[in-house]
Amino acid sequence: MRIWDVNPGYLNRQSILGEHRELHAIVSIIKHNKKGYSRHPETLRWKNFGWALNQRHRLLAAEMNLRGYMDRTPVLLKTQSLKWPEVFVDLPATQLAILAEKYRDKEQGRIPPPKNVQQLWAQHKYSVMARDAAEYKRIGRFVTARKTGNGISDLYPELVLLLCCPPCEGNLKNTIQHMWGYVSSYSSFAGKTIESKTTRSLLKEIQRLVFLHDVVYLKESTALGELQVWMR
Q1: Backbone dihedral region of 149: left (phi > 0), alpha (psi from -120 to 50 degrees) or beta?
Q2: Which of 31, 35, 131, 223 has the greatest number of CB atoms lying within 10 Å of its CB?
Q3: pLDDT tens by residue, 205-216
Q4: Are the C-beta atoms of 221 and 126 separated by less than 8 Å?
């Protein structure tokens, strides 16, 4: 039984469906005080974090939607709003290493496990931009200065915690506009049409164009799936 802390984009189809099934099992154990797996480390760390389980489920559902299948089983727990578990069964960087080994010569997720801190940052930069412009600049400088060595274990826990924070509306809109720049040449939308689009509908169009034209940089971005979870 495992609830991953990595972005669902790193998971292949089998792992996404497996986590989805196990998340609902944990919800059922917590909600109905079931004995089975009640002392499992994953169950224990998510107990009393209903809101976070709900959000993790929504992240899984958003990723499932990107890959063409729908979730119709919402999680309705709401305890401790905006609070996430502060412990990991495995550290985030270890989880990436587990997935890299698990998927060796097998189906990969939408986002490949990063080989270095530069690739890790490229995969997360728009998600961070949507949270905090100052953190975006600071982490960018850190990654640029990291000429040698891996650095994933130094940076990834911080990224995981940052992505637990809701983006503010202004940063979110600005980030979607930056992402739009990668696909705008493929769109028939005129300037005024873009201005009239909601942030949610513009992200939907970005998602459509990314897969239609195989825009790899955005296809391997955590923001492509997770940002829609935070939109009103």
Answers
A1: left
A2: 223
A3: 999 999 999 999
A4: yes
